[in-house]
């Protein structure tokens, strides 16, 4: 039996959120090939789900020491098996991870996220993020005590019976030449500050690189939403992209 076959056997016995967390943290599984097995071009995709006007300038925040540097490896953002893979292929974290300010968290509130997991991810020049498929591990780790006894939906890869867990990237600056974001089989490019990209994280293999000379800051938000209809509407029709304005937070 191959390591991936052994991994799948363990995966098929995951019943609760706690089971899932123990599964992904098992150093003996083949995490990268297991997660990559969910990549499906017939279900993958990304779209602009909203636009936000009057976003604040974040350039000064990018000079602060990040919680995790792009060039380091951390068990905070990677499982044991994932860390080993990244060491073997000389990958780093892929981006500087900063704790978001209260003003940045208000962006998630404005979009209607409910107590989300959110981070300011800045990809500085000359760094890259290797190909992978997401598993919202940080979102679940941050809620282990709350969710551990809930049934786990192995099809949706999230707690069973919960609202859809969404992941989006809010562009905090315009696209600059040399910045590459690959959502297989396509590329997101020429974004504008305030664009909010949603994607089918369960099935979309993606990778990024910054071959240019400008920072590439995104606010990554993961969680359920009070009302996700505007996201679904925009997915079906890009002429129905909802526009938010930052001052609306206090209105």
If you had to describe this structure to a student in words, what would you say it looks like?
With 251 residues, this protein is of the alpha+beta class. It has one domain: Jelly Rolls, CATH 2.60.120.10. Helix content is 24%, strand content 25%. It has helices at 3-11, 17-24, 31-36, 80-88, 102-111, 137-141, 144-147, 229-236, and strands spanning 46-53, 96-98, 117-123, 127-132, 152-153, 158-159, 166-171, 179-183, 186-188, 195-199, 206-210, 216-223, 242-245. A hairpin with a 2-residue loop joins strand 8 (179-183) and strand 9 (186-188). It is globular, with a radius of gyration of 18 Å. The N and C termini lie far apart (60 Å).
What's the CATH topology name? Jelly Rolls
Helix content: 10-25%
The secondary-structure element order is HHHEHEHEEHHEEEEEEEEHE
Overall SS class: alpha+beta
CATH class: Mainly Beta
Say how many strands there are: 13
Quick recap:
With 251 residues, the chain is an alpha+beta fold. 24% of the residues lie in helices and 25% in strands.
